[in-house]
Structure prediction request, 346 residues.
Amino acid sequence: MLRQLSAGESHGKAIVAILEGLPAGLRVGLDFVNKELKRRQSGFGRGKRMQIENDRAQLLSGLKNNTTLGSPITLLIQNKDSSIERLPKVLSPRPGHADLAGFLKYGFSDIREVLERASARSTAATVAVGALCKIFLNEFKVKINSRVLLVGGENSPLARQAKISEAIKNKDTVGGVLEVAIKGVPVGLGSYVQPDKRLDGRLAQAVMSIPGIKAIEIGLGYGYAISFGSEVHDAIYHSRDKGYFRKTNNAGGIEGGISNGEDIILRACMKPICTLMRPLASVNVHTAKAALAAVERSDTSVVSAAAVVAESAAAFVLADAFLEKFGQDSLRDIKENHRNYLKRIR
Ligand code: EPS
Prediction:
């Protein structure tokens, strides 16, 4: 089983991630991890924090000679802005944020204690861990990519950028839709035998947990609701060179909670960032009197960053399901199991 745990506040000393369960014998290049961290930080519409931080991972454990030992891998990403002890109190919760529910739940007297950990800064850990998982999956030619489909309802790159510019001008924010595509997945990852083994459920859980994500669909998704079965199920074919294959992929690569060998396609909807420079109505949590919501340094739109985070979250789930199917300890053994399995199902 692959396990991950992250720690760190947005303006604390660092973000830390531990990944346990990658097999021994995998060569890991930190350059790739850092490239992925950079991708997460870029995109039009990001705020000033991204000009301060230059996220880079340090490897603290789990490797020798750039090769995994099978022991837990610890990654540390230092925060340049580590002003947590000096930042002012936040007393008016932002609608849409964890602010109010977190404040009431934990019994704090300052909403800052909530937002420091609820911040999407923690997604740097998701991406660092996801990068390691991608390196593992790459050994088996499993590739994960993403793209932004919509920002504020617009789909062309120029119109998307214009929407973000409009939001900046109006001191507003804007969300959108992203798509993750996973190619090269073998048939048979995940299972129907228990709900928590279903690959689609596991992917949905991982991607829905990214801050700001409000909806997920796999394959045709909501499109299934308006069609007859005969129009949407992917007919099955077989040929000597391809083995079993489909001419359509409405299932988005998953049937019965198991990968079916087609590309896995997942889309997610991200709400607009909830820190508004022209804030909505709120209530001061000390006086219970009406007050405008808190205004913090923030981003205008982060759909392209969320796409990188979604790739990473999906990479963790895929790597976990892969290890479950083909073994855990040594990359060499896993490769042999994988080879034998592919031979059997041809
Ligand atoms: C983020 C860092 C944060 C925000 C953003 C994501 O930096 P700061 O709060 O210091 O400006 O830019 O966090 C949120 C959108 C949020 O809601 O908390 C990052 O590293 O991605």
